Amino acid sequence: MLFGYLDAGSGSLILQALLGGAAGILVAFKAWKARLMGKEAIAEAEAEANAEESVPTDS
Amino acid sequence: MRDPGSFRDPASHVVVEDGRVLRLLDERGLEGWQALEPSSFFRAAVADGRLVASKLIETETGPALEHPKLPFISYPYEWTFSMLKDAALLQLDLLEEALKDGITIKDATPFNIQFVDGRPLFIDVGSFERYNPGEPWLGYRQFTRQFLFPLMLHAWAGVPFQPWLRGSMEGPSAADMKRLLGFGRRVRPSVFLHVSLQARMERNLEGQSVRDGLESSGMNADLILNNVRKLRALVSKIELEVGNEGWISYEECTHVGRDRESKAEFLRAAISTNPPSRFLDLGANDAYFSEIASSEGAVAVAVDGDQPVLDAVYRRGSDVNIVVSDLTNLSPSQGWAGIERPDLVSRASPDMVLAYGIIHHLIYTASVPPTAVVDWLSSFRCPVVVEFVAPDDEMVQTLTANKHEDELHPNRDKDAFIALLQRDFEVLDTLTLGDGTRTLFSLQPSSS
User: Fold this and answer.
1) With CB atoms 3.0 to 4.6 Å apart as the test, which of A28, B177, B279, B326 could cross-link to B298 if both were Cys?
2) Nearest Cβ partner of A20 from B129, B212, B223?
3) Cα–chain-centroid distance for residue B376?
4) Which domain holds residue A42?
C-alpha cells in the first residue's frame, strides 16, 4: 500500500531508481517511458509483440 | 485531546489523555503494526533505545499503541548541526534495517525524531508499513529537503539551517540548493545527483504520474538500499568547521572562571529552597548550570542563540535538552493553524528559570528596557535566579562603547533594578560577586 500524504515528487521518484545503481538505470528509463505511454499501453504493446511471435508464418 | 501536530496520516494519529500518549490505529495502522512488531530490526531498535517503546492496548475507540511520554519536545529548527546529522543517520539506518526485514518507512522527516538523554529517538511508529515490491521510497524527496539539504546549507554554504527551517519547515528545495551552493560543490557527483539532477527532474516531470510506471519497470528494495547506503556515506562526510566563533571561548573570560563556583552554589541553594521539576536555562552557553539542575532531578532545557557552543554540549554527550534559539525571538507557535508546533515556553513549562549572564545582553545589545526584561521574567510565574550586571561592568562598557547615555534606557542601575524586581517578586537571597559589578538574585513570585 502506498500513502501519498506527502508530495514524493515525480522527478524525485524516477531519480531514485537511477540512484539505485547500474540496475536502476534501466528501471528509471522504462518508468520514464511509461509515464508517456501509460501502464496499460505498455502492457498492450508487450501483448501485441508476443502475439506476433506466435503467429505461424506461411510455409 | 489530539496532538495538534499529528494529523497528516489517515492510518494513525496521536492523542494525549491524562498524561498518557496514545497512537490510535485504524485498520491499516493496525496492519502496519502487526507487520512491524514481530520483525527483528524493530525489536533490536527498541531494545537499544533508537526507537520509542510501544505497547498495543484496546481503547473505547479501538486499538492503540501506548508510548512513554517524553519529558521535552524540541523541533529541528532548534537543533544543533550535529543533532540534525545524527537524526539523519538514524533515519537512514532504520530505513536500511527495516527494508532488509520487508518493512519500509513512509516518510522521512526530522519531526519523527526526538532527542532523549542526548541521543536521537525515532518516535513515529505509525510511519512503518510492509514493503511491497515495486514501491519506490516515497520519502526520498522529503529526506533531501528536511535532512540532507539543511546540513549541506550549514556546512557548505555557511548558512545556519535553524532560521531557514523555522521559517520554512519543508526545508530548502533542490532548486534553492542549486542556487546556494558554489560551483565547486555542485560538480561533486553526490551533490550533482541529489541537488542539480533532482532540481532538473522535479521541474521536467512535475505533476506526472510515475508510481505505476516504476512498479511495472522493476523498482525494488535493492535499488532503494543502494541509494540509502550512498546517502548515509554522504551525510557522514558533511562536517561543520568548528572554530573560535561566537561564545565558544566563553570559559576564557576571567570573570567566568572566578565566579562559576559561587554561581553554582547560589543556584544549588535556590534549587534546594524550591526544588524544580522543569528547569529553563536562558542563555545556557556551555550548559554547566543546566547540568546542575539535571543532576538534582529536574528536566533541564538549555536555550542559547549560539549554535557552536550548544553543538559542543551535544557532542560531549550531555543529557540536558538542547534548544538553539535567539533569546529575543524564542520559537513561537507555528505550523498548521498556528498550533501544530507549540511555542518553546509552553513546551518547557518551567517551574524554575535561570538567567545567568544574559539580561545585560538583552538590555544593552538588544535594547530591551529593564522594565520589560523584569516583566518577562515575572511572566513565567515561577522562581527565578538572575544575574544583574551594573553599568560600570567591563562587559557592559564594551557593549555600550558606541552609545550615548540618552540612547540607553533608564533604570539600569542596581537600585532601580531591585525596585523593579520588588513589584512582582520576593527577593529570597542575593550575592555580590567578585569586583562588585555583578549581583545574583534568587527570586520567587510574590504571593499577593
Assistant:
1) B279
2) B223
3) 22
4) 12-53
Show residues of chain B in contact with A33, CB under 8 Å: 213
Q: Does A55 touch chain B (CB under 8 A)?
A: no
φ, ψ (nearest 5 deg) of residue B310: -70, -30
Number of C-alpha atoms within 13 angstroms, CB side, residue B423? 14
Residue B370 has phi, psi (to 5 degrees) of -50, -35
In chain B, residues 112-131 whose CB comes closer than 8 Å to chain A = 129-130
Q: Is A22 on the interface with B (CB under 8 A)?
A: no
Burial B168-207 (b: 16+ CB within 10 A, else e): ebebbbbebbbebbeeebbeeebbebbbbbbbebbeebee
Residue A49: inside a domain:
yes
Which numeric CATH code is attached to B250-445?
A: 3.40.50.150
**Helix locations, B198-253, DSSP H:** 198-205, 211-216, 221-237
ipTM entry:
0.79
Query: For residue B378, what is its C-alpha cell?
Result: 515575572
Q: Where are the domains of chain B?
A: 12-67, 76-128+136-237, 250-445
The span from the CA of B420 to the CA of B87, in Å, is 44
Q: For chain B of 448 residues, list the mean pLDDT of each consecutive stretch of 10.
A: 85 88 92 94 97 95 95 98 98 98 96 97 94 93 97 94 96 95 85 92 87 86 95 95 52 64 97 98 96 98 96 97 97 94 97 96 94 97 97 88 88 94 97 92 91
Query: How many residues does the structure list for chain B?
Result: 448
Q: How far apart are CA B182 and CA B186, in angstroms?
A: 6
Q: Which of B298, B288, B297 is nearest to B350 (CA)?
A: B298
Let me know if residue A3 belongs to a domain.
Answer: no
Q: How far apart are CA B215 and CA A39, in angstroms?
A: 10
Contacts of B254 (CB under 8 A, 6+ apart): none
Cβ contacts from A onto B, under 8 A: 140
Residue A35: closest C-alpha in chain B: B210
pTM confidence score: 0.91
Query: Any idea how long chain A is?
Result: 59
- Are B201 and A3 in contact (CB < 8 Å)? no
Query: Is B204 an interface residue toward A (CB < 8 Å)?
Result: yes
| Any domain includes A6 | no
Dist CA B83 CA B329 (whole Å): 21
What are the residues facing B21 on neighbouring strands? B16, B67
